Amino acid sequence: AFLPDGSALASTSADGTLRLWPLSAAAGSGSRVLYDTGGLYLKGLSVGPRSERVMVGGGGQGVWLISVDGGGRQKLAGLEGRGAFALGPRGRLAASSASTPGRPIRVLDLETGDIQSLTAGVDLTVGKLRFTPDGLLISNTSKEGSLDGDLRIWNLEDGSHEVLSDKPGSFDLTPDGRFLLASRQGESSEPVLYDLANNTSMPLPSHGEARSVALDTEGQIAVTRRADGHGQVGLVTGGPPHLLVSSETFKSPVVSPDGQWIAAAHGSTIRLWPMPDMSQPPLHTLSLDQLLARLRALTNLRVVPDPESETGWGFELDLFPGWEKVPTW
Hints:
By secondary structure, this protein is mainly β. The protein has one helix spanning 288-296; strands at residues 8-12, 17-22, 32-36, 44-47, 53-57, 63-67, 73-75, 85-87, 93-96, 105-109, 115-118, 125-131, 137-142, 150-154, 161-166, 168-173, 179-184, 192-195, 200-203, 213-215, 221-225, 231-235, 242-244, 250-255, 261-266, 269-274, 301-305, 313-317.
C-alpha cells in the first residue's frame, strides 16, 4: 500500500516483516523494517489516513498499530489478526476480521476501547475491509468452493448494511469514497464501477474477466489483473487497456496517490510500473509499421541481417540525432 502522502510504499511478506520502501530522495534510500515477527507470516496491512501509522496483523501476533516514524507500536486488544484490516478516516476506528468462516468483523474505537461486532454470514469469510471518509465500512465475503458471498456497505451507527453485489471478488475505493471498483466471479465476471454518490453503476467490458482491481485517486483509471495473470490499465470510459506484461501473476495492484505509478506483487517481489500515457493507444493495438516507428524513436540499436550469426541476425548502432520526444520512464 502507498502511504497517502506518496512518500513511500508499505509491504508485508512471508518472512514476517513490515517494510517501508521510500519513493523519493527526501525519504531516504533502501527499505526500512518497521516490524519483525521473527519469521511468522504477516497477513496484511492498512495505512492510516495521515500516513503516520500502519495497521498490520498475522503470524499469531495479534493486530498492531506501527508508527511510520519509528515512534513505537500499539497492540489492539480485541481484534483478530488473521484476516482483513482497515483504519478509519480520522484514525479513530480500526476494523479486522479473521480468516475463519463465520467469524464476525470487529470494529474497535481506539479512544474508548469499545468493540462492535458485525456478522457477515455463518459460512462466509471476509476478504477485504475499507472505511469510507464518512465512517461507513465496506466488506467483501466469500465461501470456499462456491460463488456465495456479497459486497456490503455497513452503517456502524445501527449495524445495518446494504448489499451492492453478489459473487464479489476484489474491490478498491477512491480516497473521497465516491467511486468503488469491484471484480465479480462467475459467468459475468467483468468489473463494475459504482458511483456511490449518485447510486449508479456501470460494467467495464473492456477489462474482460478481471481478478484483482485498483483505481486511481480520481476514479478515472482502472487497473486489473487479467485471467492469464498479466496486468492491464485503462480509462473507465472504455477503449482497449494498456498491457502490463508480467512473468509471474500480477497481484494486489495499487496506484500511487499522484497517479504516476502502479505497484503490484510479483512472486516474492514488488514491481513498479510507470502509469501509461492514456492519451496514446496501447502498443499492442498498433500496426507493425506504427510499432516499429515507435520503437525506433526510443533507441538507435538496430536489428540487421548477419550471415555469420547463428540466428542470421545481429545488432548495430545507428546514428542518434537526439530525442524527438524525451521519454519518461
